[in-house]
Amino acid sequence: MNKVIHSSHWGAFETVVENDRLVDVRPFEHDAAPSPILKAIAPAVHHELRIKRPSIREGWLQSRDRDRGSGRFVEVPWDEALDIVAGELQRVKAEHGNEAIFAGSYGWSSAGRFHHAKTQLQRFMNCFGGYTGQKHSYSLAAGLAILPHIVGDLAPLRQLTTWDSIADATELFVAFGGVGTRNAQVEPGGMGAHSALPWLQRLTEKGIKLVSITPLRNDTPGFMDAEWWAPRPNTDVALMMGLAHTLVVEGLANRDFLDRYTVGFEVFEKYLLGQSDGKPKSADWAAKVCDLDADAIRRLARDMAAKRTMIATAYGLQRGDHGEQTFWMTAVLGAIVGQVGLPGGGFGFGYGSMHGQGNPMMRALPVSHSAGDNPTGSFIPVARITDLLERPGEEYDFDGERRRYPDTRLIYWCGGNPFHHHQDLNRLLQAWRRPDTVIVNEPWWTPTAKLADIVLPATTTLERNDIGASSRDRFVMAMKQAIPPQGEARNDFDIFGGLAERTGIAKAFGYDIDEMTWLRRLYDEGCAKVADSGLNVPDFDTFWDEGYVETPMPTTHYNVFTDFRADPAANKLKTPSGKIEVFSERVDSFGYDDCAGHPTWYEPVEWLGSETASRWPLHLISNQPPHKLHSQMDFAGPSLSAKVRGHEIATVSHSEAEKRDIEDGDMLRIFNDRGSTLAVARVSEDVRDGVVLLPTGAWFDPSEIDGSGGMEKHGNPNVLTIDKGTSRLGQGPMAHTTLVEIEIYTGEVPDVTAFALPEIVPLD
Which of these is catalytic: 10, 60, 78, 106? Predict the structure, then answer.
């Protein structure tokens, strides 16, 4: 029995291998709270859905048709496949230019820093002359766009006030979107020890008052005994304004802080008090918008002023219409309270949203691989894929710029599954047929692989060597190969290396050195960066032999904006004013009607307070489930066990169920004008009335593949969500702004075919 240490986005582990098969994984010995997702790894690696050989869609091979999702795949030898891909890349480059190549990679492909699909794809494409890429992330696009305008950079997002400071100093923790351990299972570079659960337990033991503001009770662990507020979804900005209004009119606003550390409050105050638009944003106003109690809002505002308060906003709140406003108003509310820069006070984004949020920034060994610079400079906002494909040459606004969509002729997707995380999948399905060619590197026959023209089988992390590292975890992991590559799978480095040889860029790409030489180089480069820091790290051979490096935890608390608060003149923020911009002249100068120069309440395009709700009376929440990361390994282990009769579970309140005669276990049709899907009902008091919860992650399984999509059979919520930008500034995804209706499905329930293999003509 062979054992090696390895790592993943949801934690480090030890492999159990027998006869070159991974039979089990065991949590890393230093992880006191391992993720249950680890149990999916072993069955996934050897699953029948693994892609065995390079495969090309027969229709494309014969006539270059674009009927993606139909017909058979033909297996071909690797050399033939690479020749075809290289030839197609060179053709598109010669005929249409590099901007016509859309290189997509999104979906947490590997904790390994070298064999990271996005890095390998983009490095190859940069050496090839460039491509059109994506800017920002589905998780945080709106927030990433607005924060530099407010505070100059991403400081309150990337390095939060640490848990230890909160535990020692915070008296009141106000959590917009809750705070929990579900999303904190994961970290981009992996982790050796999950920390969120122990920290939340410590906060509970310290007696810190927690107010959890979310339509879902379980967004905060039950042991924390949180005070649960359940507003209408997408109304958090209105609630923040009601709190701010109370602080101002009752003389509780910290005027000294506002005068010294912010600019433009006088402009926003006129809006807040209704002097500029005739609508005071009072607690009474907020209560009507949010469907909450006005007196409770006023009491909370007074409590925030009287106690050391941390205002925390989850990532998910900016994934709604006008999502930029949630982050902006969070910062402004924090400024009004005036505790920014004090121990345990101020504001932060993403506590509980990922493993590292709230952890100290480690003096960790920085191991990373560079993709280089894109010579074309061409990109789209991350979630504007369908617009890119549908509207070549069309202009659009983004963060103060007027940009144009290029004419996409080839998609190369590596590491991810857009037919999971993108919105309005029926619309994407039609747009996906517009390019000449779609190429995918992938270990499994995912929905995206089935909708490709050329599919190249990639290894999983267990079939290659790598290094796992994160700046917010104290362990650097040697991710040793545990089993041989399955079938004829190759790692992405070798795939792109083969293409680099055929296109004359092998040396520039770095294919003149092998995998282990690269790992040694990246490790040694990291050691050189910390040589003067006093961090004692072993040489590469020792690290590789021992399996990991543990770096010491910082011994001092960290609070965001401490230096700025101590001396704002000497420690200016990177904003035009050097201060927190309550009113931004730059944003105002853009002239956007959906993102003004100060935080503003905009009614979402769909919400429970709109006329649209008379037709679609339920707000859909599609959050991240505890049993998988996005759609990864949906076909194995914990994800399968969380389904009922092969379908995802949709949760509604008893009241909403009674209105429709729904009982636990009923098959539901969830629908709106964009599409429909099937899911099994669960009735619970853990969701507020007017809400249906359908977690994300089910592999896309449409009943029709002709472009119309038909009814989705598996429970994928993104056949229902709106594919519209959050605003002209951020252009982020807004999946959390979606209204639907539900009904008992009385027809014959179709089989779930998401995990069925396509028809394949074997090479043998």
Answer: 106
